[in-house]
Amino acid sequence: MILSGRGVTAVLGPTNTGKTHYAIERMVAHETGVIGLPLRLLAREVYTRLVEKVGHHNVALITGEEKIAPHKARYSVCTVEAMPRETRASFVAIDEVQLAGDLERGHIFTDRVLHLRGRDETLLLGAATMKPILQHLLPGITIVERPRLSQLFYAGSKKITRLPQRTAIVAFSADEVYAIAELIRRQRGGAAVVLGALSPRTRNAQVGLYQEGDVEYLVATDAIGMGLNLDVDHVAFAQDRKYDGYQYRNLNPGEIGQVAGRAGRHLRDGTFGVTGRVNPMDEELVQRIETHDFDPVRVLQWRSKNLDFSSITGLKASLDAPPTISGLTRALPAIDQQALEHLSRYPDIKEIATTAERVEKLWEACALPDYRRITPVQHADLISTLYADLVRRGTVNEDFMAEQVRRADRTDGEIDTLSARIAQIRTWTYVSNRPGWLADPTHWQEKTREIEDRLSDALHERLTKRFVDRRTSVLMKRLRENAMLEAEISVNGDVFVEGHHVGQLAGFRFTPAAGTEGPDAKAVQSASQKALALEFEARAARLHAAGNGDLAVGSDGYVRWLGDPVARLSASDHIMRPRVILLADEQLTGNARDHVAARIERFVNYHIANVLKPLDDLSRAEDLEGLAKGLAFQLVESLGVLFRRDVAEDVKSLDQDARASIRKHGIRFGAYHIFMPALLKPAPAELITLLWALKNDGLDKPGYGDLIPVLAAGRTSVVTDPAFERTFYKLAGFRFLGKRAVRIDILERLADLIRPLLQWKPGTPRPDGAYDGRRFTTTTAMLSILGATPDDMEEILKGLGYRADSVKAEEAAAFLASQTAAAAPAAEAAETTDDNGKADHDDADAATETEGEAQPAESVQAAEEQSSPLDVSSEAAAAEAAEPKPVLLWRPGSRHDNQRHNHRDRGQGERHGDRRDGKKQAGGRPDRAKGRDGRSQDAGRPDRGNRPDRGERPERNERGGKPQQQRFEARPPRKEKPIDPDSPFAKLAALKEQMKK
Length: 997
Hints:
Strand content: 5-15%
Mean pLDDT: 81
Oligomer: single chain
Radius of gyration: 50 Å
Helix content: 25-40%
Low-confidence stretches: 832-882, 899-941, 943-975
Number of helices: 33
């Protein structure tokens, strides 16, 4: 090999010396020219610049995947692999010649450097490290060294989130590049991404994002070191190790300098450094990079171009031939040579590669690039398929190619999926541009180019969507232009700056949108606050003039205006007067803030007074005195419900006038509760629950607000949840009774049903459910109003303090039959009893005071399906059972219940007063039984705390002695008491008297 450097000029120097620009200027000075570049992306950039200078009809672009060849084009822009081996062009230039030392592609650069020449001028462009080897290999070469136009300085180590704007961050794997870009997007608004695996169109679009200022950061691999003209001020290395195709190794100083040299543009100085993930550079390395002092390239990668196509074996041997001159070294097997090695073992390839022509065609097929980065065997299989078609059919099977192209023609999927499809379509783009490989190459060139462009655009869109915050990019551009940012607020409270959503205004509080903490945050906040200040003033005026219908108090304790929270309620000294805490940003100040706070407070007071009007009126009542006033105070403090047993002494001490004055305020004296029926509705109950929760830190307690829907649904009883705060049942109008809770007014109706059953006198007509005057059985009416089953009824009665005696069904039936027979003589007398004989119960425990406004139970289906245990008609349905179910006889509990033995009722029961001979007394029980049980008119209050004063018992004589002998009358005599003039029964009696007259 005899080589010469005559007519060859090497323009050498570090980055930013204007070498490529110089080559373009020299080429257009010649009639024709060819320039070779290391990347398709860079070739596209140079092609565009030449078209601007001489017109598109004079410039051709030739790469392995693309061919733009106008008729009689004067200049050709190529990738180094696509450069012709021989040319008659006047000018030839080869850029980045230092890549001749690259292990993978070096042999191709070496071949062009050593053999390709222009007729008049040849330029070799590259790093100064190539000077010794070029002088050695090309004697007579002219060396021109160009200094860097700006200086390069080391800036040390910085966290990624603290890197300055216009920074390129360098990593050496796609996963690392994506991770850094995601971090930059979250912290600084967004980043462009450049990888060698991206298609040129996608890389151009990403570089355009950065160059146009839409983003301030670029995350890339070392691909940016190959001649891309970028406006970079700082280069930060996030990694210092890379995989070179054969092994992982540390970057050498020359490679670091090549990439770091991208910092600074033209006359502007640049800096370089590392991120926190990489150890800081030592002083010697920094000095070498700053002074561009790198080890010279000592050998170039070489592979023989004198190939033997007589056979596959001969071709392989010629590829393995060593160089004959010093300074060159045989290159490691590249992808094409590896593919040939695999194919040489395929029997079908051996059968058809029998002539020099076919072996040469095989070597041409092996040049197919491995864009997909698959295994050598898989790549060899694809080449085998294409080669077989070329030999046997003359062209590639277009049906096969159409199927492969169709699979890649989809734009759905994420970044990795689209990247894989682009790599696949690039393979077929290369095939379509190989001369003689397809019957209709023009069709396939257009189709594959269209698909690649569409996929590239989709990939660019995905990358931008994932790694770029458009809002931030636009705002940053406006800030660089020193423009005032325009802000506006929509009707629904969305705040926009320069048309981009930056937050939400709810009431008087502004919530920034996610991602507004970037470098533009201060400018965005400033623009937003100017718009918010005016909006706050306007909103304050509207709220001050708003009607009560525009405001609402929620169960969460927030006051809302037109749906937006404007205040929060908090506990105060008085449970009915909670504090109002304004929810507003600092921009609401002065009179506007005072007016808003005053208006909200007025509404809260109005709302409580309106919804809880009976309770509010009671708290302000001036007509109550003494014990009545004290009882009213307790009722207000308890939010409308008192357990009767807790105030039994006070109730007994009230005279008729005091009771009448309390009743005027809507208060009912029930058997179990002192309560206000008007508050047993969803709206008052919800507000009452809220006020209690504010006072007792109960908003987060289990069960808060869960019982109001039950009340609103009309349920009269509900299964209790042991996890719930028990007080919530009372606040919602329910009495907690173990496993079930029953609405308060329904319990009072239950007491009305039980009272006559325990007041019944044997020998008189027996009401349904009565047994012996001291005990009763559950009835369908009881189950109906409670919406409960018999089992539920047992739990409820036990919770109320009743106790059950169990007797056999046949014994109970026999006993009731005897009672019915004894009552027959008195039936006629009972029918003639005048209604005026019914005495009014003005006592606090009387039934008149528990007459309800309560609605009937809605959930009674289960109760209606159950029949009374004593219903004779139900005996047929139960006949199938082997033994009838025992009957439960309920009685008020007493303190002696725990001392008694739990024996079954013998015949007529332990407390029937049976004689030893089985005969009972005339009344069905001994006289002393009544005194022992202490039974009162109020059978609905079995517990001792609710028992009435013993002096009011009608069974006792005036001296308070033992009960008199029972008489068989329609009703027992009772002591006359003063009639309450406000009693509805007194008014009814007066009306009857008038009618008689």
